[in-house]
Here is the input.
Amino acid sequence: MQSDFTYKPIDSQSLVNESTYFNCSSNITAKEINWFHHPVGVEAHQRKSVYAFGKIYVDYEEDFVLDKNSTYGAYNLMIKSVKPGYAGQYQCQEDGGYGSSAYAQLIVIGEHINSLCQFQLKSGIDEKRLDRILLFSLTM
Here is the structure.
């Protein structure tokens, strides 16, 4: 199946409670692009619908927004406040969910590491020392 994507999503890393986005655009403008989420630890065939049939699905409607320009085939997925459960692979599928797909990974950096980074800023700990603290905390 030939892809008509003009923009594909790229992998993203985000801190908990920060925002992020995935761009996805296609030359196929007659039908919408659908978005799916493959959460971490879930079988590939158990994807969850994020956006389809003109709406954001209930599990995602609190934090997700679709920036849509159907004239240009752009269906960009924005996450206003990233939660740990949003980690995983995101799939945009053109032609109303029946065409080619493009994928991107979202890595969510948790509150513990975020707190350490904030601690570094406030306390003036140098970066090498913070790296040792992070490695220690990740191995616990």
The chain has three helices and eleven strands. Confidence is low (pLDDT under 50) at residues 132-140.
